């Protein structure tokens, strides 16, 4: 009798365990189903949320030029970005905007790209440092710094010498940008004092790293960083508000007349979409049709 009772209890326990495992498998399957459903919910017939940067942004200036969104009319360059585009005023806002909207498209500095969004291949090429070096990924632009002609701030001069040195260019490479591999070692005078650096929000993240590294070799220097935009960076360098201005684009002719400038790095521009977007690649022409407003839904560009 005792043996029969034990077998009965064992059978019940086994059935209970089996039910528990079955329930667990069901929950797991349900979870996988939800995940799969979430991915397949993306609908290409929805409107594209076009996100662009503000006027004065060097990233916007380079983006519209590289994709042919800037056109000449009556001898002047005209930005043809659609009026329907949402405007963001910084790299971080661009990233959070695209990450929060399944149907958004935007663009950021390659060095600022993170895993909250997905970078698209453009014309079959991935946005990567190596592809830029190899000349395969064409959507790239210079990072410039500029000083007013006749600038005599010794700290600013020495900091620029550090940026262009082997050590400074290594900081640039370590942060995902393309520097000068042939630069010579830093041999500055390490003066004491203060310099103000300001401008492009795309250049700002790597400039912050450069400032941190420079302060380790010149503890007597104080470098203040102000993040604005490329145009403000140049105009403020001209009027003396900034000792060093930053721009994530080429300098304009009127800026070149009043400033001494140099390229500190090359950076790619990544075209980004939400991670739920099933699109992995666009051509340059497709990007242009989106940003000029000629295509308004995803299925017009993604067949």
UniProtKB/TrEMBL annotation:
It is a lipid-anchor. Residues 31-40 have a biased composition (Basic and acidic residues). The keyword Signal applies. It comes from the Bacteria. Keywords: Lipoprotein, Palmitate, Phosphate transport, Signal, Transport. InterPro entries: PBP_domain, Phosphate_ABC_transporter. Residues 24-51 are annotated as: Disordered. One of its GO terms (biological process) is phosphate ion transport. Gene3D superfamilies: Periplasmic binding protein-like II. It is found in: Cell membrane. Residues 1-20 form the signal peptide. GO terms for cellular component: plasma membrane. The keyword Transport applies. Residues 41-167, 186-300 form the PBP domain. Belongs to the PstS family. Part of the ABC transporter complex PstSACB involved in phosphate import. The complex is composed of two ATP-binding proteins (PstB), two transmembrane proteins (PstC and PstA) and a solute-binding protein (PstS). This is Phosphate ABC transporter substrate-binding protein. It comes from Dorea longicatena.
């Amino acid at each position: 009798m005792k043996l029969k009772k034990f077998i009965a209890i064992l059978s019940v326990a086994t059935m209970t365990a089996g039910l528990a495992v079955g329930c667990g498998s069901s929950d797991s399957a349900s979870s996988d189903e939800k995940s799969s459903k979430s991915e397949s919910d993306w609908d290409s017939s929805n409107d594209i949320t076009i996100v662009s940067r503000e006027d004065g942004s060097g990233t916007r200036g380079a983006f519209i030029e590289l994709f042919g969104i800037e056109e000449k009319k009556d001898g002047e360059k005209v930005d043809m970005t659609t009026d329907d585009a949402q405007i963001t005023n910084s790299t971080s806002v661009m990233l959070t905007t695209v990450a929060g909207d399944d149907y958004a498209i935007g663009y950021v500095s390659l060095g600022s790209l993170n895993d909250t969004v997905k970078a698209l291949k453009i014309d079959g090429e991935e946005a990567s440092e190596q592809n830029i070096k190899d000349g395969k990924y064409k959507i790239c632009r210079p990072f410039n710094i500029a000083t007013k002609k006749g600038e005599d701030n010794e700290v600013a001069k020495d900091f620029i010498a550090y940026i262009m040195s082997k050590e400074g260019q290594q900081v640039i490479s370590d942060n995902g940008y393309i520097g000068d591999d042939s630069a010579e070692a830093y041999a500055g005078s390490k003066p004491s004092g203060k310099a103000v650096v300001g401008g492009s929000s795309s250049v700002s993240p790597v400039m912050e790293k450069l400032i941190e590294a420079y302060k380790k070799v010149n503890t007597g220097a104080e470098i203040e960083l102000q993040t604005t935009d490329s145009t403000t960076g140049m105009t403020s360098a001209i009027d003396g508000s900034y000792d060093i201005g930053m721009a994530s684009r080429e300098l304009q002719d009127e800026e070149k007349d009043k400033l001494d400038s140099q390229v500190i790095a090359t950076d790619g521009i990544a075209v980004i979409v939400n991670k739920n977007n099933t699109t992995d690649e666009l051509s340059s022409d497709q990007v242009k049709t989106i940003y000029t407003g000629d295509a308004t839904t995803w299925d017009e560009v993604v067949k």
